[in-house]
Design brief:
mainly beta, Immunoglobulin-like, five-stranded antiparallel beta sheet, four-stranded antiparallel beta sheet, elongated
């Protein structure tokens, strides 16, 4: 008679359901642009966000306004800026070139340097699904 020996499987402790994996801190929430207004008389752009902002690293060279309705120009937000409130800024626009179009549009990249004071969340820019925001009215 032959006996076969089968080794026992090693014990593996299973985590309890209430034991979660340590993933670390969540990244900060992105800043949300809640209002945008183009002043075609003073050639300035007003941007309002969902929480307090820090402008110390502001770089407006990636923020463009294409005005095909009033002046037929494309502008960049490299002029002087000021806080209107903790969440809203107004930026003077500089002329880039002539623009032919029927709308007033805002496009901005993600490297504007506008960040949230509370958690450092950044503004990802203005384009929504590849279409620039329409600034002809204040419906944002």
């Amino acid at each position: 008679m032959t006996l076969t020996f089968q080794p026992r499987k090693p014990f593996q402790r299973r985590p309890r359901p209430d034991e979660g994996l340590a993933l670390g801190p969540l990244p900060p929430a992105q800043l949300v642009l809640v209002s945008a207004y183009y002043d075609d008389m003073d050639i300035r752009l007003q941007l309002g966000f969902d929480r307090k902002i820090d402008m110390s690293a502001f770089d407006g060279s990636g923020i463009f306004v294409r005005d095909g309705t009033f002046h037929g120009m494309m502008y960049v937000a490299t002029g002087a800026w000021e806080f209107l409130s903790d969440t809203t800024i107004k930026v003077s626009l500089d002329v880039v070139e002539e623009f032919v179009g029927e709308d007033v549009e805002l496009t901005a990249g993600d490297a504007t340097g506008i960040v949230a004071v509370d958690d450092g969340g950044t503004w990802p820019g203005s384009e929504r699904g590849g279409v620039a925001a329409d600034l002809r009215n204040d419906e944002w």
